[in-house]
Automatic annotation (TrEMBL):
Keyword annotations: ATP-binding, Kinase, Magnesium, Metal-binding, Nucleotide-binding, Pyruvate, Transferase
Domain PEP-utilising enzyme mobile: 392-462
Descriptive protein name: Phosphoenolpyruvate synthase
Function: Catalyzes the phosphorylation of pyruvate to phosphoenolpyruvate.
Source organism of this protein record: Flavobacterium omnivorum
Cofactor: Mg(2+)
Primary enzyme class: transferase
Homology family: Belongs to the PEP-utilizing enzyme family.
Every Pyruvate phosphate dikinase AMP/ATP-binding domain range: 19-353
GO biological process: gluconeogenesis
Residue ranges of domain PEP-utilising enzyme C-terminal in the record: 492-749
Amino acid sequence: MRTYKYILFFNQISIEAIDKVGGKNASLGEMYNQLNPIGISIPNGFAITAEGYRLFRKTNGLEQLLQDLLLSLDTKEYSNLSLIGEKARNLILSATIPEEIRDEINTAYQSLSKQCGTSNLDVAVRSSATSEDLPTASFAGRMESFLHIIGEQELLLTIHRCYASLFTDRAIKYRHDMDFTKIDIAISVGVQQMVRSDKAASGVAFTIDPDSGFENTIIINSIWGLGENIVQGTVTPDEWMVFKPTLANPNVNPILKRQCGQKEFTMIYTDTVAGSPAENNIFNTDTSLEKQKQFSLNDKEVIQLAQWCAKIEKHYQKPMDIEWAKDGLNNQLYIVQARPETVHGKANKQLREIYKLKEKSTLLTQGIALGDKIASGKARILNNPQEGDLLQNGEIIVTDVTNPDWDPIMKRAAAIITNKGGRTSHAAIVARELGTVAVVGCGNATSIIKNGQEITVSCSEGKEGNVYDGILKWEITEQDFSTLKMPKTDPMLILADPERAFELSQYPNQGVGLMRMEFAISNTIKIHPLALCEPEKITDQIIKSEIAALTKGYEDPKKYFIDKLAEAVAIVAAAFYPKDVIVRMSDFKSNEYANLIGGKFYEPKEENPMIGFRGASRYYSDFYRKGFALECEAMKKVRNEMGLLNVKLMIPFCRTVEEGVNVLAEMTKNGLVQGVNGLQVYVMIEIPSNVLMAAEFAKLFDGFSIGSNDLTQLTLGLDRDSALVSYLFNEENPAVKYLIKETIKVAKR
């Protein structure tokens, strides 16, 4: 291979070369050399070094001109940012790339083309600043990248434009925000073999949950075509949540959750026209309805990507933000970029601010919540970043979608609301970095919210962000977990909402003592289980249509119930893994079941549903056993297919020993056998009136729980049999020992 002065091929680059080729190219070189050999596919390429840029700057006499220009920047209000940026870019674009650099670029391009078996290789050209992708900052999206560049002439023009992108308005502003102005920041340009994702799919992945900072999952987003639509937030991507601890086990499926996005547009290439701007080489097409309904990756590909991501994270020893692409010509997956995740990687996870609304009002719109804070102020509807001057400090941006041109504006906003975008869109990434409240992907925000309207944006109520009318009151409490000492007893959480599991798992705990299945059924599934087992009993056409819409894509609607319930439980089990998560099987009362979609066609009317047909008594009845079978299938999937053996099961409202025997028999029929594969089954009982009955319950089940009223009696020492029940079930539990001790003390008085 020829020796170059201003060119380094990827096989010559390591992560130590950030000062020579910038963070992006250093990472690519590191992966190409260290991870390619262990099976992670990285497209080959080369980098024009920062020294090449410095020679370009010196040869054209730009150093002092650029320095003087940047010194004239208004660093308080940034009122002349656009003017300064435009002048700086014009200085760069009017200069000439030195001939010796041009010759080296042409020779390196020819060499790369030959290595890839072609004469004019299709390449991606990316800017890479020498301060980029540091642990404390990311220049992602603030400088230019260009795709589908073919031929020496187009390559040189594109590299020239990359040099100019060091002075985009957003890049200049970001350097000031990050206090990099005293650093001699140079730019390297990466030239990499193009992956033809225009004919397949592409996306991003995080080796940490980007919202909560939970470290045991890998989040993968994917769309059809080029990945720019994900970054811009113009489409809703497919999303998979993969569990790291079971990723290496070939006998289980580590995918906790999958969600099919709309993928409204597909970005593809056009034929390159000589001399045309690089951005004219791509355009967006409407995605067909058929492809919108399809997942853009299959499970095997998702798992392969997740395994690669886990290896990349292990290599760098830090959470990573990764870009990947699938080539539609050879159907192979590739990693095209990786950088450190810069938000949660530097957060103090022991110190938390807890926001809580003290009042509610009319809900205007909802979307994906970013962060867990609350903000309020006047809404400012902006159609594009050129209208940024209209935004007053403390106002809330309401817009269709954002891109990096919005960065200087977003920092002044109290909150950000967009119609479009997902968790990995530009608005989401910047909001996390800035610590700004944001709700993205609302769909209708710009039509529902009025300009100047006072609103409150709440991201403190789970994964869904809510926008309320008016200025509402809220409170903030600060909790430093580092000062908390765990008690001798085992503090376990009572949890209903799976969307908060990752956040709550970071609180001091010893697992989940009670996960209520009802929340997942009523909020996610929404359909009465028997409406999926015996649909012929429903005569209302509107209800039939509702069920058809929710179960769209499922040939067997019962599978919808099983999958959604399994996902909800799996997320909680993964969040607290390997600690116990005790899942209570459904304990709706008959009137609550009737409120589910289709429920009125199945449920009896009871005078007092509180003590009626609920809990254990339903499971083995001819009336509900088909519905209970779906619950059992979901729990089998969580434990046996997904490998989350920390899930234990609880049978609620069990009134007699005979009832307990019947339920265990019904579970066995459905493949949930107590003791097999470590399955433990607990029971929620009414306190028995005699010791013999307590002993019989203890023989049947692995543990027990009692209602709150009975617990009050127990702690007051008014029911000695209750203390004995505790002893029979779990005499080694410190909590039980303490309870018995206190009960005896009260009884002696």
